[in-house]
């Protein structure tokens, strides 16, 4: 009876496992048909890493230059507020342009305040403002706005000529407002987005769109398959619960059978205990004989141990003597090492003292050199100016000498021509007289 119930229980378990394996196989097939390969996701990434056309590079360069200019423009108020800090590093021309820009900004704020009666509470209550004055103020504001824009362009042009100044003002990047920082971040994101878009050709964009549409269709199919699988899963869970009820009934029957088996097994256990007691008596007799034998072996081993102890004590005495000798040698070596180390320590302290004295002397010499350096630079500049003046004088003297030589040569040639003319006239006069 019990064996039949166990067999039925095993058959039910095998049927449940087959149903679960079938559902899992169907799910695996659907997943294999619908899930895309991981390598296929690389289609969404751009094929090229660099721009192919000059127009695209120009577009990217325009965005990058715009972000650089905005980063400089957003730091202009901070530079004007801290002009003493940046006056030496930025140079005279750039600082003059920045001061002029600050002055224009103040005038523009004043013009706006005057237009909207900001800061003039006496005029705020007067609603009868002349239209001519209003137009004039607006024209003044437009002129100031144009001048403000040209000032910004001029400042950017000067910063472009001086790249080191751009690097210096980056130390004040923390002074930007949150809006300016967000603007620069948006421009950087725009540059990355445009760069990615320019890397993709229209044909690649079309292929990606088609690929995304395929993925959407596959996703829909997968959702449908998941819905069907969920229905199957609920049915399988229901079947499993039914099977569990059946199995619980089988387990209850098996427990009853086990109680009956316990009653039958008690007689069997009693018989086994009697056999075990008989076996224990036989084993006890055997163990007593083995114990006597082991006692004899222990006596023999003890005699051997005593003999070995006497032998080892003699060797121990000789080893102790050797150990004492080695310890004395080690103490001597340690004393010698301590003496040498003390000598080296004294020598090190002496060298350290000399080093400190030399460091003090070196600092004094560096201070003297620091005081003499501006005088040296001034003397070098004066010598340079004197050499330039000397070269200018030498060049002028060389030009004057050259001019004098040319004048003298011209004068000598003129004199020679005059003498030749006079000689020709004399020769003609003599010839006429001879005739």
UniProtKB/TrEMBL annotation:
Pfam families documented for this protein: IQ (PF00612)
InterPro entries per record: DRC10, IQ_motif_EF-hand-BS
Keyword annotations of the record: Cell projection, Cilium, Coiled coil, Cytoplasm, Cytoskeleton, Flagellum
SMART domains in the record: IQ (SM00015)
Entries under PROSITE patterns matching the protein: IQ
Coiled coil stretches, renumbered: 291-358
Keyword Coiled coil: yes
Compartmental location: Cytoplasm, Cytoskeleton, Flagellum axoneme
Function summary: Component of the nexin-dynein regulatory complex (N-DRC), a key regulator of ciliary/flagellar motility which maintains the alignment and integrity of the distal axoneme and regulates microtubule sliding in motile axonemes.
Family the UniProt entry places it in: Belongs to the DRC10 family.
SUBUNIT field: Component of the nexin-dynein regulatory complex (N-DRC). Interacts with CFAP52.
Name this protein carries in UniProt: Dynein regulatory complex protein 10
């Amino acid at each position: 009876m019990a064996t039949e119930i166990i067999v039925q229980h095993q058959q039910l378990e095998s049927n449940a496992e087959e149903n679960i394996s079938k559902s899992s196989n169907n799910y695996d097939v659907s997943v294999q048909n619908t899930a895309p390969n991981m390598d296929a996701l690389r289609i969404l990434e751009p094929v090229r890493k660099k721009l192919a056309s000059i127009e695209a590079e120009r577009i990217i360069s325009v965005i990058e230059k715009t972000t650089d200019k905005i980063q400089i423009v957003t730091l202009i108020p901070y530079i004007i507020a801290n002009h003493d800090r940046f006056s030496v590093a930025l140079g005279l021309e750039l600082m003059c342009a920045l001061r002029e820009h600050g002055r224009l900004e103040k005038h523009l704020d004043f013009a706006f305040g005057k237009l909207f009666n900001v800061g003039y509470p006496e005029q705020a209550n007067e609603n009868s403002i002349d239209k001519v004055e209003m137009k004039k103020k607006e024209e003044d504001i437009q002129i100031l706005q144009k001048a403000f824009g040209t000032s910004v362009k001029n400042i950017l042009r000067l910063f472009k000529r001086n790249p080191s100044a751009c690097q210096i003002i980056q130390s004040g990047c923390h002074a930007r407002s949150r809006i300016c920082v967000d603007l620069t971040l948006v421009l950087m994101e725009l540059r990355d987005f445009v760069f990615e878009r320019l890397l993709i050709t229209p044909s690649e964009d079309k292929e990606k769109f088609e690929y995304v549409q395929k993925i959407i269709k596959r996703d829909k199919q997968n959702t449908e398959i998941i819905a069907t699988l969920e229905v199957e899963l609920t049915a399988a869970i229901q079947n499993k619960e039914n099977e569990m009820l059946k199995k619980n009934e089988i387990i209850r029957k098996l427990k009853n059978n086990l109680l009956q088996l316990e009653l039958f097994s008690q007689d069997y256990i009693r018989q086994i205990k009697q056999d075990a007691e008989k076996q224990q008596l036989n084993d006890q007799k055997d163990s007593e004989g083995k114990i006597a034998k082991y006692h004899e072996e222990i006596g023999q081993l003890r005699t051997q141990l005593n003999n070995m102890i006497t032998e080892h004590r003699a060797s121990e005495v000789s080893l102790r003597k050797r150990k004492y000798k080695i310890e004395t040698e080690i103490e001597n070596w340690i004393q010698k090492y301590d003496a040498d180390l003390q000598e080296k320590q004294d020598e090190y302290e002496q060298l350290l003292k000399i080093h400190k004295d030399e460091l003090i002397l070196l600092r004094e010499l560096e201070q003297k050199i620091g005081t003499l350096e501006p005088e040296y630079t001034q003397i070098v500049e004066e010598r340079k100016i004197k050499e330039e003046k000397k070269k200018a004088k030498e060049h002028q003297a060389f030009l004057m000498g050259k001019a004098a030589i040319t004048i003298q040569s011209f004068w000598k040639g003129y004199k020679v021509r005059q003498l030749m003319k006079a000689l020709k006239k004399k020769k003609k006069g003599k010839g006429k007289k001879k005739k």
